[in-house]
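Researcher: I'd like a structural prediction for the single chain below. Treat it as a standalone chain; there are no partners to consider.
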Amino acid sequence: MWRRRKLSDWIDEFFEQAYSELMSPSWDAIKRCLVPLINIEDKEDEIVVTADLPCVESKEDIDLNVTEDNLEIIAKMKEAIRWERWGTSQRHLEFQTFRKSIRLPEKVNSEGSRAVFRNGVLKVSLPKVRKRFTIKIQ
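Model: Treating it as a single chain, here is the predicted structure.
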């Protein structure tokens, strides 16, 4: 049975998602990778994921792994990005890849997926799974 959601439920969900996105770090120091900026568009027949991958030279440097409900992006940078901080604690980090695992809002057909990489921007189109049922008329 379909249940109508309260406006307060929608607002709570929005702020939970925004907080988790804003407060999670944009890097992983152990794996030495950065998290790329992404945008997810949920269209009628497909889901389009756009990722910003600066410092990635070509499509050969990108690995995409797709399942029916998850997309993983791994991209190697042409040059490592270094971050150094000197002061009371000395820290040196070097990032060599971008890595992001994205839980998709709907199930997709991974075999029909396609991707384009141009000018540091990756665009992945994932067609949605549509189930069709034949109803026998009596």
